[in-house]
Amino acid sequence: MKIITVSNIKGGSAKSTTAIFLSEALSRRGKTLVIDLDMQADLTDYFLPDLSPEEMDKGNVFKLLTGECDFATAVKKGEFADVIPGTIELSQLSVRVMQNYSILKRLDTLLKENRDYDYVVIDTPGSARSELTVSLVACHTILIPVIPSKWAIRAVNLLLDEIGNAREITNKEHSVCFAPSMFGKSKKNLDLLERLKSLEEFHTLSPIPKSESIKSMAEKRKKLKTGSVGWLAYDQLAEEVIQY
Q1: Per-residue pLDDT tens for 106-146?
Q2: SS3 for 67?
Q3: Which one has a higher pLDDT value, 11 or 240?
């Protein structure tokens, strides 16, 4: 089982879009679980658009982490992947962690106990919160979507600090990969791509091209058209992620 956290502390970094379409590509290769650790719950809205509030309240990622439901109750069946939905109650998780530090390791423990998946993709909030720490403790690979922005490298440095904190908890040596997203062919975009590649201690994967259709399909909760530029780009991303 390969566990991948998709994270970037900077908002608007194509993080959830990357997690959505990477999950789709991975689901073509094996049984996939998607975990939504972002209180905005964009992944949940995409994968489970018809999930009722009542069904959500029976089991979700917050209740799973706080011990208020078991793993089987938290997992919902999506069209092509299982999903543990996110919820706005995640805003309370940091307070719960202060009361019970073991929450930070609970997802790691549960995934080790429920190894029925080939791939697990975890979406995270765009900030350094307890949800991010929970995901970093549980995962093997950290995928950092980076969009063309003057703040891109600075945001990555902040995330690397959080990764260091997680390593102190688990003694894991995560594999860290950059996923350049929405990159065009302008000199500014190409210069940033070269800066990422110059960070030799991390892998820089093939860039996802700039495409309004990718963003639009995520917002419309639709799959990418098979064989389209976006579909091929995320299919390639899945292949490369599996290697690391």
Answers
A1: 999 999 998 899 999 999 987 768 888 899 899 989 898 88
A2: coil
A3: 240
Q: Computed from CA positions of residues 10, 11, 14, 16, in that sequence, does the dihedral angle turn out positive or negative? A: positive
Other Cβ atoms within 10 Å of 140 Cβ, number: 15
Domains and their CATH numbers in the chain = 2-243 (3.40.50.300)
Q: How far apart are CA 137 and CA 143, in angstroms?
A: 14
pTM comes to: 0.90
Q: Kindly tell me the burial class for residue 226, based on how many C-beta atoms sit within 10 Å of its own C-beta (0-12, 13-18, 19 or more).
A: exposed
Neighbour-count burial of 193, counting CB atoms closer than 10 A to its CB (0-12 exposed, 13-18 middle, 19+ buried) = middle
- Residue 145 φ/ψ, nearest 5 degrees: -70, 135
- What is the Rg, in whole angstroms, of the alpha carbon atoms belonging to the chain? 17
Contact between residue 86 and residue 116 where contact means Cβ atoms under 8 Å apart: no
**Taking a C-beta distance cutoff of 8 angstroms, is the pair 118, 31 a contact?**
yes
